[in-house]
Amino acid sequence: MDRSLTVNRASWDDRAPLHAESPDYRVDQLVGDPEALSGVVRFDRDRLGDLTGLRVVHLQCHLGTDTLSLHRLGARVTGLDFSPASLEHARSIAARAGAEIDYVEADVQRADEVLPRHAFDVVYTGIGALCWLPSIERWAAVVAALLAPGGRLLVRDMHPLLGALDEHDLSLRYPYFETAEPVVSEEDTSYVPTSRPLSATVTHSWNHGIGEIVTALLGQGLTVTALAEHASVPWEALPGRMAEGDDGEWRVTGDGPALPLSVTVQAVAP
Q1: Helix (H) / strand (E) containing 45
Q2: Distance (Å, whole) CA 138 – CA 90
Q3: DSSP-based three-state secondary structure for 78
Q4: What phi, psi does 24 have (nearest 5°)?
Q5: What pTM value is reported for the model?
Q6: What is the fold, at CATH topology level, of the domain defined by 3-268?
Q7: Is there a contact between 97 and 31 (Cβ–Cβ < 8 Å)?
Q8: Distance of alpha carbon 58 from alpha carbon 116, whole angstroms
Q9: So where are the chain's domains?
């Protein structure tokens, strides 16, 4: 198995039970309220459009809170993730909520080998996903292979500028563009509060420029229909410099200009 894949899987297996109990994931509220949606899906809802009866695959679904939310919008959903611990919690959350959701354990870069090809009306990727992929071109090929004719992609993720910034002094510290070698990080905290420090502290990540993402999709024959940059993200990406709004999104505070913190790309298959 690829070294980076092994390292990152261990990290997400370690995080899964901690995230499931973290108040930021609102698991009990989502389970208890049949009309509740995750903050991520609420943000994307207008762009998602009517999902009633559509076949939707949620790539890199983690705990499945966004997956459950897509189900509640009327979709027939499949969630895919490479972390067995994450999927254990995702299946439990779906069962507690009375939702029929198919979950598949696989590396997203091989999703087209384990899921039916050209079978999905929507491919959805929520925030915090693309940075774990060594090749954005391979990801785009997977998206194209999964989409049915006329099917559409919606991905909102961290803006690559944010991914390149040092969170302390906002200087450019990391690569903006995709690199062959990963950025290796070691930290015992996650992006949400946890009840204990992480034990699997090492992660491997890659940044991907906006041009690289769009070009990869175009290279697979998809038509890019929308590109939007946002001045918010759903976690405190720059500690001490941000405030949380009523919508659950975090924005930079102060009198300076707004920073692009996340980006949405939408595309349609031929």
Answers
A1: helix 39-48
A2: 26
A3: strand
A4: -65, -25
A5: 0.96
A6: Rossmann fold (3.40.50)
A7: yes
A8: 14
A9: 3-268
